[in-house]
Structure formats: structure tokens, C-alpha cells
Amino acid sequence: MPSALPIADPAPSDGALPASARLGVEERDLGVYLHVPFCRVRCGYCDFNTYTATELRGVTREDYASQAIAELELASRVLGGFPRRVASTVFFGGGTPTLLPARDLVRMLDGVRSSLGIAEGAEVTTEANPDSVDPEYLATLAAGGFTRVSFGMQSAVPHVLATLDRTHDPERIPLVVRWAREAGLQVSLDLIYGTPGESLDDWRRSLEQAIAQRPDHISAYALIVEQGTKLARRVAHGELAAPDDDLQADFYELADELLSSAGYEWYEVSNWSTGPATRSRHNTAYWTGQDWWGVGPGAHSHVGGVRWWNAKHPAAYAQRLAEGLSPAVGRETLDAEARQLETVLLGSRIREGLPLELVPEREGVAALIADGLVEGASAVNGRLVLTRRGRLLADAVVRAITPGRT
Amino acid sequence: MGEWRVMSPRSAAPLQPAATDPSRIRNFCIIAHIDHGKSTLADRMLQITGVVSDRDMRAQYLDRMDIERERGITIKSQAVRMPWSVDGGTYALNMIDTPGHVDFTYEVSRSLAACEGAILLVDAAQGIEAQTLANLYLALENDLEIIPVLNKIDLPAADPDKYARELAQLIGGDPEDVMRVSGKTGVGVEELLDRVVERIPAPVGDASAAPRAMIFDSVYDSYRGVVTYVRMIDGSLNPRERIQMMSTKAVHDILEIGVSSPEPTPSQGLGVGEVGYLITGVKDVRQSKVGDTVTTAAKPATQALEGYTDPLPMVFSGIYPIDGGDYPDLRDALDKLKLSDAALQYEPETSVALGFGFRCGFLGLLHLEIVTERLRREFDLDLITTAPSVIYEVTTEDKKTVVVTNPSEYPTGKIASVSEPIVSASILAPKDYVGAIMDLCQTRRGTMRSMDYLGEDRVELKYTLPLGEIVFDFFDQLKSRTQGYASLDYEPAGQQEADLVKVDILLQGEQVDAFSAIVHKDKAYAYGVLMTGRLRELIPRQQFEVPIQAAIGARIIARESIRAMRKDVLAKCYGGDITRKRKLLEKQKEGKKRMKMVGRVEVPQEAFIAALSGDVESKDKAKK
Known about the structure:
Chain A has two domains: 19-287, Alpha-Beta Barrel (TIM Barrel), CATH 3.20.20; 336-406, no CATH class. In chain A, 36% of the residues lie in helices and 19% in strands. Chain A has helices at residues 64-79, 102-115, 135-144, 158-163, 172-182, 200-212, 230-236, 245-261, 281-287, 314-322, 336-347, 365-370, 376-380, 388-392, 394-401, and strands at residues 30-36, 87-94, 118-128, 148-154, 186-193, 217-222, 265-268, 271-273, 291-295, 300-303, 306-310, 328-333, 354-355, 383-384. The longest helix of chain B has 18 residues, at 521-538. The radius of gyration of chain B is 28 Å and the shape is globular.
């Protein structure tokens, strides 16, 4: 079951934005996220907004590209009153975007181009399942304007993949990475650690396998047992052990160790790349408070301190668009306090860190340096940057440097 | 309620107060253990004598406060005047209700001093208990005529023959003389009232002497101010007279004088031997102290009645609001309770762990429990109380003696000696539990003084015990080791020197005041291990390792440590996660506000509360 949407204000049916969203718009980039809410099977750990064929209540995958394009046209209308900005990044996520034919993804990307425009040299990424791509598929994407592909590798160890319900063959990873490179695409690999039953050696093997492919970029995420998932039920029944925070910390430290010695530098808590040029520009936009329009069921958007989110089910989403309405079902306009907290919680996660003048409670910083959670040298130079231990305790750091809400 | 007999009052023409010959007066009380049915019997008497109609009958009429009714404990005594006729003669019976617990021994003794006789009421299924025995001794010391009565004879488990023999053996006499009643059904109650008239002597006093009345109770009423209950010894008191309290010489005007029957009924005064109430408009029970002698300003007595003492607190505890914002409400509540509770003492206190609160003095543990319960219930306050402490006298090497009622007052530096209060305790239990009781008393540093058989299978054990060893958890332990059969009574028995030390608990080197305790040297290690272990379970992991130590002075006697937390970060934080993530942090920060800081260590208030109460659940489990 996908996780619940936040509780907030209703969104206007025409998607119109308040005047406040326009403030400082010239200084912000615009990104586009396209959500593809389909999967062949649902993985036991996953609480993303995605649906298998039997859960679609009459909606078909074939119609999806047209619906997404309809929302892009709405985006173009809503943003039409703003100074014109073209998209500097586009990201297709899911679900499993590659469950759609390559030409559908390209058609949607064309939709972005014709509605909002795409900047010269834009980063265009899609997530991909190692199962569902071949050389031709990847070549079609590259020809259509895609620049980057992110494969859901998760693990190189069969019993770990099995616990995660991942169906791909780990042997396929070197193959798909090679095909992507041959198509001229940048490559990222996603890994998950802390799966029940996974040992530190299992994890080392996965990391070494991933590094051996020499991708441009690696993400590594601690497994979270989300409420309502099959995994959560299995843990509740005692079938599987709940992930242990200390063990996950060990896994994280091993990842950072191996990745940095292999030449990958961390640039966000869970992300490493071969250098500044290969970081995910799209994801960086989330952490630096840029604007983005999220297209598709359950997708979240942010423009100038206004966050909104769409109807979750593909059927409800399609229906609203068919009626000429905005698919947004809730939104919130951040007040100064909420914006400050977001700036701190997002900014402290990245390698550039947070300018100290944006830290609300600076008197807490010295103790964090003493505890080895914040880099002393960076702090002296005016930025709060987390150490490896600090990254593992990023939430505690944020609580220590922000005031309680009054 | 059970099926009561149809009552036929034998009390056609009640005698008028202030005009009743002392020979027509009978003053008595009922001595009974909690649960042995005193209040139910009193209810039946009120009904049978016609002072309360069946319709108005409220179960356990005499116990006013909710807590008393729920616990079946009478805290505040009162007196009720009931008419009763025997052989054509009409009498006024004054039933004086006595508190039934060890904490209120002084009040009991004053109630007994107001009587000429006592009904010794014992549950026919359980036999006599230690507290009852203690009060029986007090009654005999006051030369009261004792009427032994077995109650609850309607119960299937009742064994009246056995307990009649036990009672007869105890007070002398024939088992046949032990009366058998059921307060529930009313069986035997009329005969009992007849026997009160027959056996209990009439009061004797000098009607023409300067008035002297003994205060045996003093109750605060929010509408009428303090209601003072008195027993006239000599002379009389009249409406609108000016009275004088002999201990303080304070003078008050009588606004109302009367008797309870059982509602307050104004009268033309009170004469020799009579029992009634006075209202003078004072607002604080401290101005009308139990045991004091009331006389008149116009014709003052020169000699006060014997037996007056000020109530002295024996047990001390810190009381803190769980929500610091409730501190002013707690202060107001204590100010109000003080009006009706002359023994309650308190002063402001500050604790690192618990914030602002009050150091309070109590007569004993039950008194402490009653006060905190009333604060919770009547004033709707959420409270935490620190471990109870007693009064220690600590002498330093430079020969200075410090009275310590709170571990924080314990002197630093070299200690020459420490003296602690001791009590003389009497424990009654079936003989099978003697071993278990001796074990318990042994671990509490008790010294056995005697062991006597009481009846066929019950034993009375007498021990000298340090008060500090019984204020915490002793009674519960006694009950659980004897399957609830043992009963306990104790009275102060002076001071003794003992090898006592103060154990402090340190979190990351910072002392947590609420956990300091004065304990015997042999138990210091166990206390240290217990508290450091509890805190390790209860305090959440921090971003750094937190040592927890128990120390005597500078010497560490036990240590634990809370390992540093290693992971507290959400792995994924992309577009759709941000709102959820921010809300989660806001919630966590709300929680942080309720944290107490000990140095840099954030401790949830609940952890302190749980550690103090012993309610330790692992923090990992608590998280779920």
C-alpha cells in the first residue's frame, strides 16, 4: 500500500498559484519530475505510489503518456504568468518508467519540451529496472534526449534480492551498464543496505560489484520498513528481523569507506559520484530549494514555497485531467518557520553544507564539532558540513540547531 | 446494597443537647481494621436509630471524601448523636468515628479520649489485625469499656466460634460475651445498641466548673470554614459565646454550636459529657488543633486537658508537577489542602531533573498517598513524587549536627555519625508466614523483640525497624510475602546510630538530584546498581556516549553507560519526502521541549518518572 499523503489545505481546481510563489522566481531553476506509477510486481519493501496491472481500476498504461502531457500543458498555463523558465532537469521516476515503451518516455519528454521547454545541456534521467531494458530501448531514449539512466541494482547477492522481492538477475547488471554506456548515457546504480539477513560481507560484495562497473554515480539507501508494506508485516510476525540501527550504521560507514577509496565522493547523505559533473542535478535541486513540477499520480511539486501533490490513484488522476481540472488534491504554503526548517534539514544533507548564517541556533554548533558530527574546518570557513558520523545523525543535528516550534 | 431488614426506630423523643443529664449520655467509638465493616455497621446504626431515613441512606454515610469511600478508609473522624431507648429510658448515643490507620495514631488517641467505651469490631472471617490491636491497646490505656463484636457473620467464610475464642483470650472474658452482628443485614445491631447503653459508663464532669472541651477533630468545609468537633469535659458552651484556645490563647466568637445527627443541627449549647461541633469562622485547621482545649474568654479554665501534641511529620517527599506549567496550580492546591490537613507541611523546592515543586512532610506513607491522590483527583494535577525520606541527624567531624529530610541537605565532607529514626512495629499474621516475615525484616535491618501466639494459629511479631526501611515498599512486600494476610502497625521508637551513606547518581558526571538517596552502607551498592541499570534502560541513546555512575562522595560504586546513538537520519529525502520529513522533525522537536537537560544529556521526563517508580520498560520496547 502506498504511503498516505500529508494533511494540508485543499488545492484550487485550476492549479493557480498564489502571488507569493512568484517571489524570487528568477533565481530558481525549474525541474520536471514525471512519475510513472506502474510496476510488474510490487516489491515487499516498497511504499511508493505504484500499481500493478490488476490494481489499475480500468486505467491502462497505454493512455498514460497522453495524461502526463495533459498535465504538462496545465503546468505551462499555470506558470505562463511567470517569467519564462525552461526546464534545466527532467527526471522520470516510479514505479518502473521502463515498463512503458521507450517511445512513450520520449513522447512525454517531447511534451516537456513543447510545453515548458528544455534548456540546452539539460540533465534528463530515467530510473530503470535491469530486467526491462535492452540496447535498443536505451538507444531510443538517448536519441530522444535522455542523458542519464539510474538502474535499481539494490544488491549483488541473490538471497538479499529475494528478500526484497527483486526479480532481476544480478548477472545482468554489467550488461545493462555496458549497453547504457554504449548508448551514450551516464549511469547511476541504486543500492539498498540493511535488508534482513544481509551480512556486512554481503553488503561489501554488493558495493564491490557496483564499483566494478565504474558507474558515474552510486546511491545507497538504508532499508526502511515502511508501515503497511508486506515487509512490515513479515517483520511484525517475526518472520524477518527488523533492521538494526547500529548495523545499518556499520553498513553506511563501509559504503562511504569503499566508495571514497574507489574515487566516489559523497555529495549528499545517500549519494556519491565521480565528481561535481556527475552529481544528479535534478536531485540537487530538491536539496537547494529550487522549483519543480511533479507530473503524474501522487507526484509532489514545489514552486516558491508552495508545495502541492496530486491525486494518488492513476484512475482519480486521469479523471481529474479529463474534466479539465488540476490533478492536485492538497497543498501547503510554507510559513517562514517551516521554510527555515526545510532549508536547514535539506541543506545540512549536502556536501556544500549550510551557510552558518542560515543556522538558527549557532550556539549549538561548537558542541557538534566537539562530538565529531560537524566538520570543524568547514565551520571555521562559514559552512556547516556533516562528518561521516554526522551524516548518520543528520536528524539529531538538525534538531540541535533549530528552535522548537512555538 | 444487600437486603436490609425493615428498621423500626426505638427512639420516639430524642433528648435535647445542652439539657441532657450526663447519665443519659453514652460516648463510644468503633475500633476496627480497614474492610472489617465499620462504616457499614455505622450506617445500620444511623438507620436503626432513625437519624437517617432509608431513602437518604447513602452507603457508608460517615465517610465523606471519595478517596475514603473507595479505599474503605476513614481519614477524618466525626461524631454522630443518635437517640436510643432501653426499658423506657431514652439515651443520647454519641458515636465517634476514628481513623483506622497507623499514620493517624495521634488523632485516634484523641478520639478515644473523647469516649468512655469502644466497640471492638472484628471480621468474623479474618480475625483481629495489627492495627486493631494497636488501637485496642490505646483504648485500654484510656480505660475504655470494650464491647467485643464479630461482624460479617452472614459471610460463608465466617468462623465466629474461632474468632470469639481469639477475642476472649485477648481481652479476657467468655467467648459467649462476644456479640455477633452483620452490618450488612442489620442482624444483632439493636442488641448491640442495647449493650452500649448497658455497659458503657456515662460521662462524668463538673457542670459548674470553668468550661473545658477537648478538640478531637477539626475539619475544613469550603462553605462554613473550619468545623471543630469537641467533647465537653466540664462546664458548658453556649451560642454566641467567646471561646479561647488554650494552646494559643486565640479568642474566637462562636458563630454556631450544635450536634451532628448526622447533618449539623444547631443547638442551645453543649453540656457536660456531650459531643458536638463549633463554628467560629476561622479558615485554617491550624487555628483549631486536635488535642487542644477549648474554654471561654469570660470564665477561662486554668488547666488544659492532658494529651495535646503538635503533629510531627515523619516522612518527606518531593512533589512535582509533570507539566512545569502546573506549578502555580500545585501551590494553590497545597494551600487549599492545608486548610483541612493540619499535619501537611510543604515548602518550595527545585530539582534539576524534575523542575519546580515542593518538599512535603507527612505523618506517614498513607498520609503521603492520600495527599498525592487528593491533589491528582480533586485538583486534576499530574504529579511525580520522589522516593520518600525520613529525618536523619548527621553529625560532621567538626561536631556540627544537621537535620536532613532531603538527601540534598546531606553535608559534604567528613561525617562522624548518622542517626536515623526507628519504629517499634507489630506484625500479625498466620503462623505459616513467620519465616517469610522474618526474612523480610532481616533484609530491612530489623531486630526482633518478641514473638507471641495470638489465638490458635496467629502470631504477633514485634520488631524494631528503621523507619527509612519501611517507608519504601515494605508494606507491599509484607503483603505479597504473606498472600495479603499480614497486618502491620508501628509507632516511633526514637533514634539510632547507623552506618548510613548518601548515594548520588551521576549522568555524564552531572548529579541527578532526584535520585540521591540515604541508604545503609551495605545496600549502597545494590541501590547504585539498581538505579544506574534503570536509567540505562530508560534514557534514550544520545549523540555521544553517556556514562551513568553511582557514587558515595567521590567514590564510584557502580557504573553503566549508554552507547552513543549511531544512526538518526532518513536515508531518502527527495521531492515527495520533504513535507513528511519536515512534519516528522517538527513533531520530534515538540518532544524535545518535554526533555529535561542534565548537562548535555536530554532525558524524557517519563524516564525520570519511570526510574523513580520502578516502572522500567526498555526504551526500545517503549518506542514501538
